[in-house]
Amino acid sequence: VRSQDPVVLLEQARSGDRGATGRLLSMVERGGAASAAVARTVYPDSGHIDRVVGLTGAPGAGKSTLTDGVIRQARQEPGPVGVLAVDPSSPFTGGAILGDRVRMSEHTTDPDVFIRSMATRGHLGGLSVAVPEAVRVLGAVGFTTVLIETVGVGQVEVEIAGAADTTVVVVNPGWGDSVQANKAGLLEIADVFVINKADRPGSAETRRDLDNMLDLDPAMGEWRPPIVLTTATSGDGLEELWTAVGEHSAYLERSGERDRRRRRRLIEELDRVLVRRLAADVRTLAGGEVYERLTSAMLARAVDPQAAAAELLAALGVVA
Amino acid sequence: VRSQDPVVLLEQARSGDRGATGRLLSMVERGGAASAAVARTVYPDSGHIDRVVGLTGAPGAGKSTLTDGVIRQARQEPGPVGVLAVDPSSPFTGGAILGDRVRMSEHTTDPDVFIRSMATRGHLGGLSVAVPEAVRVLGAVGFTTVLIETVGVGQVEVEIAGAADTTVVVVNPGWGDSVQANKAGLLEIADVFVINKADRPGSAETRRDLDNMLDLDPAMGEWRPPIVLTTATSGDGLEELWTAVGEHSAYLERSGERDRRRRRRLIEELDRVLVRRLAADVRTLAGGEVYERLTSAMLARAVDPQAAAAELLAALGVVA
């Protein structure tokens, strides 16, 4: 019989049982009481990861091949590597992309590489709560490097990227317009830029576009995100990328920024957990006579949803 | 001086002032008190739209060209057409795609076609609250057909699709694996399937894949989603698509399903508005001594975020 006790599972996972690691992560994904128990168990020992690196960018940017290359670089250093391949873009592409991702990695048979796909839907903020929890599980198990690959683009991915110490944003040659249109978001999250598929035409222009964008960033601090050109399929530029990640890591350490980031991230995570729990309880909060009266009035077009929500919360005394 | 009074703006919008319509939609997007005032103003008269049609699918499926073609079909019937082009996928592709969308439509100069792009980030569930509100604005202004085009894929899009009476899911030839991997989500939202770019190889196989999926749907009711082959660039299949949308609309009417859907959707929207308001108040809820003590304990790795959230909510007496 497989144990469901997080304490037992963590012990098994630490002695190299990858199945136990997988079961802990499944409990995190499920949420609820199981997730809370895992969180409590791993939390005290989860702070010993050297590097949490996020790789993010639009579909088709070549992130999977790039991640495989980054794993190769990370494996030249001591310590096992954990990879979370996160896809919030179900229902249209999720399963397929992630299935391929895990199946096709060149590292599937390396006992010191653990690749796990995470996808969920229907939970408000589900992944942005589950991913940092999953990173802590990997940390407590003993992984010294954790890579978070997000397959997709959007608000949820930005939140997920927030779980990493160093976020690598992957673009392709010819994405200048897209870069220009979204510079605020890119500047907000990127610690390192990668122009992947750099053997294609247009990589010089894309580098120039990124450089111009960085030149004009009013919030630029001590760290200016380097731009690395890679061709993941041939391996070109991967060593430079890993060096850039290491330099960012050293900067974080030296400047005290790592601690500040981790603190800020924990506070944000607490807020998200609070919102999630409140959301789960909305139906409960909302039950009863006032709720029935207000929904009837709303369906009769007498009260709009915003007014109904305001009245309901006031009646419940939840919000001043 | 431009009025910010929703009552005045609604009157102007009804007499054909598209700038006033745009300002009402901007107020909806901003959220907060302005949005609540607009919601209150338009709600009583917002129920007279004949058709709310959603078009959704992965990037690259050709939705923009398809939407242009659908507008052409809708314009052969009386009444103005409103289009909301919604992109939740910022920061990577959002602005660029939507800018093109509005700029490149063949209907830009038609006074009875109003195209509006909506994109927002950083607001938890922002678009899934703003889109149904925007649809009601268009209804109160007098638009009889509203199209909602979602540029992107994912959980938020599924929620947005829920604001439509009829949801058209767009796929391309060769997407069989993706369809198979995501059948649960597709079956949940699709009222009509379109295989666009049907002149490319593989459309027969994709049709067969979709048909097999529909054959095996255990929850299939009276309506079986038809599969329409289109080539939006040449216009092929667009009349069939519009006919299929009309047939779905007639089915909704005949079966009473339209009223049931609209009721269910309003209740879901109330819940989302409640969650959003609670989220906005989390910081307020969370202020004070207990919050400070718990966040300190959390940063010292003594209490994990889930446990901290539970303790905090209990201390505040918000949740039983």
Shape category of chain A: globular
N to C succession of SSEs of chain A: HHHEHEHEHEHEHHEHEHHHHH
Q: Give the number of DSSP strands of chain A.
A: 7
Low-confidence stretches of chain A: 90-97
Helix content of chain A: 40-55%
Helix and strand composition category of chain A: alpha/beta
Strand order of the largest sheet of chain A: 3-2-4-1-5-6-7
Oligomer: homodimer
Strand content of chain A: 5-15%
The N- to C-terminal Cα distance of chain A equals: 51 Å
Mean pLDDT of chain A: 83
Provide the gyration radius of chain A in Å: 22 Å
Largest interface: A-B, 79 and 79 residues
Number of helices of chain A: 15
Largest sheet descriptor of chain A? 7 strands, parallel
Report on the architecture of this protein.
The structure is a homodimer of 320-residue chains. Chain A starts with 5 loop residues before the first helix and ends with a helix. Residues 90-97 of chain A have low confidence and may be disordered. In chain A, helix 2 (18-30) packs across helix 3. Chain A is 55% helix and 12% strand. Chain A has helices at 6-14, 18-30, 32-42, 63-74, 94-104, 126-141, 155-161, 176-181, 183-189, 203-215, 238-255, 257-280, 282-286, 289-299, 305-316, and strands at residues 51-57, 81-86, 113-118, 145-151, 166-171, 192-195, 227-229. Chain A is α/β, with parallel strands linked by helices and 320 residues long. A seven-stranded parallel sheet of chain A has the order 3-2-4-1-5-6-7, sandwiched between helices. Chain A contains 15 helices and seven strands. The interface between A and B is large, with 79 and 79 residues.
